[in-house]
Amino acid sequence: MAEAMAFDPTGNNPFDLLDEWMKEAEKTEINDPNAVALATVSDDGWPSVRMVLMKGRDEQSIHFYTNYTSRKAAELDSLGRAAMSFHWKSLRRQLRLVGRIERLAHDISDAYYNSRPYGSRIGAWASQQSQPLASRDELSGRVKALEAEYPEAPPRPPFWGGYRLIPHEIEFWQDGESRLHDRFRFTKPVNDLSGSWQVQRLYP
Question: Residue 1: inside a domain, yes or no?
Fold first, then answer.
């Protein structure tokens, strides 16, 4: 197990720190170091959480992709807010983000979709995500039919694409001896994300 060292990210860009931690996690995690828990809330106030994969970022946000007809998409579109949490067990680190949600531009979703393996592109068409499924055979049948319809290069489904989480809060947590962990929270005013990040050390 990796040895956790005390750290102080004051004065750094939190997205650059995310890149550094992700690179280290790519060396130590068994699989999917980019897996992140995504939490949403329904219109009637019930929270739900599931794992998604971070698939890139820009200077302000984290990118991920899903079916726009899924439960998560309905909650993302309705409230426009979400939270994320990375957990890299091998490094004894966590990273939390809270922020606003927007759909990614079509050209960005197109570019990512076209970079996926053929099977994953067909799978995006075949899955009616979050809807009841009578049997595995039904899904297999949909896949075969779509493979016949799109034998080479399926276009991106209109119901599938990307989102960006634009955080106003990012918290880095690193395990410490005797549970005296290092915690640093970066924040921006919710209504002024163009400003500079402010950072505070928190009690563990």
Answer: no
